[in-house]
Amino acid sequence: MRFGGLLVALILVVGLGGAVIALHSREQNTQFVSQQQALAPVRAGELERLILTTSDPRPGYDHPPARARLARCVSFAPRAALGNPWSCVVRYAHPPDVRYRVTVRAEGSIYGSGQPEGAPLRGVLTVRGCCVVPGQ
């Protein structure tokens, strides 16, 4: 019985130590927070310019790779620095246009998924690229 009490006490000490470490790691990382607060705002034109460098992801339209011809993006959170999420309608060489839901990451890369307008596919089309350059 004496060893049982000792075992329970040891488990409690280890658990308490783990809780202290977990709570301490949740404290703000000041360097990370300062980098996030210093993000330059992303504008629609900057995102549109990056999307124009992407290729048509639709099956059958990738040989030769056709670039986007027109992109129009609208932010769902215009007051946020990155503006996420974005809705972008992209026109390629062949209709229909494709509507993407795009996320701009802190380092400026983008990832979006979407469907052709009026002609949905079974899968999801993706667009990705690097990097949005704020202020240009």
Q: Give helix % range.
A: 25-40%
- Shape verdict: elongated
Structural class estimated from helices and strands? alpha+beta
Radius of gyration: 24 Å
Biggest sheet: strands, sense, closure? 5 strands, antiparallel
The low-confidence parts are 30-34
Give a nutshell description of this structure.
The protein has helices at 2-25, 30-37, 44-51, and strands at 70-75, 86-91, 98-104, 110-116, 125-129.
What do you see in this structure?
The protein is of the alpha+beta class and 136 residues long. It has two domains: 35 residues; 91 residues. The longest helix has 24 residues.
Which secondary structure elements does this structure contain, and how are they paired or packed?
Elements: H1 2-25, H2 30-37, H3 44-51, E1 70-75, E2 86-91, E3 98-104, E4 110-116, E5 125-129
Main attributes of the structure:
alpha+beta; five-stranded antiparallel beta sheet; 5 strands; 2 domains; 136 residues; elongated
